[in-house]
Structure formats: structure tokens, C-alpha cells
């Protein structure tokens, strides 16, 4: 039997299992991720974060000594980036003396990312540039309701729709989108409502996971889409408050960068016994 040590953490309710695998010795495939993230038979989580040294990552040509955040969705699929997960990842590194703050550099599939621990304990992450376009995408929920969606790229794909009422949206089943070819590898779908000047509420259906209490890259996508949707012409940088079911984050939009600021907490440590292979 395989016994693995793990930590469990969350950022505004978006929860993750963290594994330390410095030299990339663990066999972490889709079956292992699905088991660990299963809320009934495993530990439970929206995704898994594996901490490994970047020198073990194929095609990584940056600093080989950085910690690489190997992020997997709950269904075992690989994802490019996760903003809430990155904050949890940094909190884990700091609490285990694997990095020193307040500034921490992390390698991700979306490139190197910089995180800063603020005096109030929140973590501010440089997320990279965000691009929002109107490509004529339509999103349809399982009850037949249809919404226009702006597309946003923040290192991973998003479709942001605006609605007056978010409470009744049936997000227990994957919404569909058209044209389907716009997102051949799937998409994160956010539904947002304007609540005031630069204040937006949202719900999200994450690719490979389902509805989650929060999505870090999704909050950045929503803030950028809200700026276009409302015709906000103020000079950059501007800061948006984004309210998710799991809590509030702040998103700063600059000319060629975006920043996500929010809490990150490690709530548990333990050991798990994985099922026999095969």
C-alpha cells in the first residue's frame, strides 16, 4: 500500500490537497487525483497541488530551483493555472520553511508567478495580463436559459456571462457553449452580477471540477469582463471587489498585469492510504 502525507487548504472556500514531492518521485496520475479529491471516498478537494522542483518539469526553461505548482483538477485533468490554489501553495511553502517571504516566486504551467504576503496576512499574486474579447459566444444552462458571454484569457480560458439574478442558476450540471470550437479543451464559466461601482458578485462552473465556492483566475476574468461590460473608462490601474460564495477577493487591473489579493489557509495535515494499484 502507498501511504502519502498531505496538507489541506483553501482560498475563499476553493479547497485543495497539497502533496510535497520535491524530486518528482510520486506516481500522481488521474486515478490518484480522482481518489484524493473524492469527497466521499477520499480526502475531498476541488483540486490537487503537487510541490516539486522545477528542474523535474519537462520543457521548463526557467529557474530550475523554483518550486513548481503541479495543479490538477478534481477529475485528474491538468490545468494551466489556479489563482486560489497559488495562494494556498505559497502559504504551504512558507509554513513548511520551503520558501522565505514576503515575496515568493513560483513556477506554473502559465509561467513564473510572484506572490507577496501582505501585512494583514492576505496574499497578493501577480496573475499576468488578462485579455477580454467578444467572440459571439453563447452559454446555455441545463434549464435552457441562454446568455451572451465574453471570453477571457488569464493563462487559462474563461467565458463570463452577466445576469441580474445568480441565485437560481442550475450549475449542478455542466452548461454548454457555442460555437463549441471556441473552447476545444473546455472552459471555466463564470456568471456575474454588477453590485455597485467596481463590485461584482459571481458564481463559477470550473472546467474539470463543477461548481466551486470560488475560482481565482475566474475572479480576474470577471473583473476584466465587468470593466468592459460597464464601460469603465477610468485610467488603469483600477481595483474591483469580487464577491464569491466562498468570500471576497480584490482584483487590481493594470495596463499589462493583473493582481489577485485574498486569504489562504492551511487547515489540516495527515496521511492517506491509497487504494491498491490495478
CATH C-level category of the largest domain: Alpha Beta
**What is the CATH T-level topology of the largest domain?**
Diaminopimelate Epimerase, Chain A, domain 1
User: Largest sheet, described in full?
Assistant: 18 strands, mixed
Mean pLDDT: 96
- Number of helices, where a helix is a run of at least 4 consecutive DSSP H or I residues: 3
Task: Estimate nothing, just give the exact number of structural domains.
Answer: 2
Sketch the topology as an H/E string, one letter per element.
EEHEEHEEEEEEEEEEHEEEE
How would you name the CATH homologous superfamily of the largest domain? Diaminopimelate Epimerase, Chain A, domain 1
Nutshell version of this structure?
This protein has helices at 30-37, 83-95, 216-230; strands at residues 2-11, 14-20, 47-53, 67-73, 103-108, 111-117, 123-126, 131-140, 146-153, 157-162, 176-178, 188-196, 199-206, 210-212, 238-244, 247-253, 258-262, 265-274. It has 278 residues and is mainly β.
What features would you describe in this structure?
The chain is mostly beta strands and 278 residues long. It has two domains: 2-125 and 263-274, Diaminopimelate Epimerase, Chain A, domain 1, CATH 3.10.310.10; 131-256, Roll (Diaminopimelate Epimerase, Chain A, domain 1). The chain is 13% helix and 45% strand. It is built from three helices and 18 strands. It has an 18-stranded mixed beta sheet that branches. Strand 8 and strand 9 (146-153) form a beta hairpin. The model has no long low-confidence stretch (mean pLDDT 96).
